[in-house]
Amino acid sequence: MTPATSLDGSARIAEAFARAKTEDRAALIVYLTACYPDAALSKACFEAAVDAGADILEVGIPFSDPMMDGPVIQAANQHVLEAGTTVTDQLEMIASLRHLEVPTLAMTYVTIADTRGYARFADELAEAGLAGVILPDLPISEAEGWLTEATRRGLATVFLASSVSTDERLEAIGRRSSGWVYATGLMGVTGVKSVSAALTRPLVERVRTHTDLPVAVGIGVRDRASAAEVARYADGVIVGSSIVRAAGEGDPSGAPDRVAALVRELRAGVAER
Amino acid sequence: MSTTSLSGSPELETAREGYFGRFGGQYVPEALSGALTQLVGAWHDAQADPAFEAELDDLRRNYGGRPTPLYLASRLSEEAGVEVWLKREDLAHTGSHKLNNVVGQALLTRRMGKPRVIAETGAGQHGVATATAAALFGLECVVYMGAEDCRRQRLNVVRMQLLGATVVPVESGTRTLKDAINEAMRDWVTNVDSTHYLIGSAMGPHPFPTIVRELQKIISIESTEQFAAQAGGIPDAVIACVGGGSNAIGSFAEWIEVPEVRIIGIEAAGEGVGSGRSAATISEGREAVLHGSRSIALVDDDGQVLPAHSVSAGLDYPGVGPEHAWLASTGRGTYLSATDEDALHGFRRTSELEGIIPALEPAHAVGWLLRHGKAELGDGARVVLTMSGRGDKDVDEVVEVAGWDVGVAKAFGAASPGVQDGHGEATVEPGGAAGTELQP
Can you tell me the distance from the alpha carbon of B328 to that of B338, in angstroms, rounded to the nearest whole number? Predict the structure, then answer.
């Protein structure tokens, strides 16, 4: 056990946001698909991301039918599944990241958690050293069973908020979330369009009226400029597809260096505000 | 809101809205929460508005060609050893039952003020129906269809395009129906303000399974009356093919509370249950969340969705609607399966004995009935079988897959690629019966 895991997931995440805040910047949250391009390089990519300044990691557990993901993350999921990698293999890779001093959350689809059984899945995530989980197709109205298990294991559960969410739903999202609230930066799937400030800024402000949790913006943030733009009004900036693209393009052995280069850019962006 | 007002059979559902026992629900991204709430509201309003029912009824009759006949298939009955009454959805406009649902949802789309509809399609029947309604109502229409399905159901692709729809071939995953649904969901998440996702089967997040059931229920409302008038009394069994399960749930709906009537759903078993190349979800699957609801699906131990297989694009789906999962789990419904070979047998014999070329989907139900009906239901049992669509779309595929040469190749020399590919040595004389196991 590393010292970090003596705190529950929410507290570790809160610390990461607080640290960024003392540096007068937004927190940088970096997503990569587990075991992409392979287990060893994936581990190296996550380590490189942390060295380059990521504050929080999201590790995607691949699903065959990722409804909220655009072509880049779909292809990464497909690649990992076609390599014959199982969820157990991915959890093993994830457990190898526990020495990193940043909180790490699993991002996957409810089918994966449900098929394994919520109790077992929560146990395995906690044992792998994870701080929390994001299930984009588990809305608050269906989340009760999962939340019971997540809470039991000290895992944070981050819910998504959308510009179409009613105030009533935003209130419930704020109340049920732990770690942060994930404000979606546009109407759409990952990695296709750019963040829409016109939709996102008012959403972040609405979420803040319902919760004291940090609010991070993801979907549509891809580079230094868009990270800087979002950092002006959000507590955290989540980047996924462009990092997965960097990991995947070119010689696989160069993936960690390419990830590090992009993360450095993004880290500069979140401090620009 | 109460479940009662949304449902046709309140006492058969649990108290939780949108659930059938433990199946159903709304497992969707938050971005769709508003659209689903709006749809529930529009559906409630429509149910309370006599003008909605009146317009739907007018369209069903005068545009859609309802009621469809209930026809006693005497020669098929003789061969099956049971009395087969065909509910002729194949005679409805667009050639299948799909328009029943589409017209209702198009009216809802108009009530919600949305200018655009999207749809998924497997065999193309739902895509054609959606394109038809979009033309009728002046809506923009985009249909997602697996690239593999575009190939094997080319006729329907052309029909959709003629009707003014954009057909998007989906190259991801298994390039079939499940991937078309994923892509339609992604479009919906992106364009939800302007767009209604016109789901074609009794699946997806609440309220879709209920709306589709209620709109398809016209099948069993008509067949109840027709059977009583033409045959007298009630049938011993109602049989329909099940992919996602829209024609089946519509065929069953009015009979669910009549315990004397057996409810039998026939799934597509591809190369056989246990072969690893099957789409018999209820027979082989497990409880899982897929495409917005908790139901039964073909998933592996990790929850990864397994590729389904069926000769019929419309049944080639690794999931099933939640109400069917519930009917199966309570024992009210019996879910069995027919293989590709059974379906081809049903296809051929319905054509030869009744002069009705069935779609490959209901051909599964016919194939099962011919092979197992008498043993399962008893000699002379009276059966209503939903002929959910016509088979014109399947002719090329059947010739290729079954290797039947009906003389076209000879007459035209170098035949079309579809005909040339598959039949090889199976060529027989025109008018003769085809390959060995398909021989009647």
Answer: 17
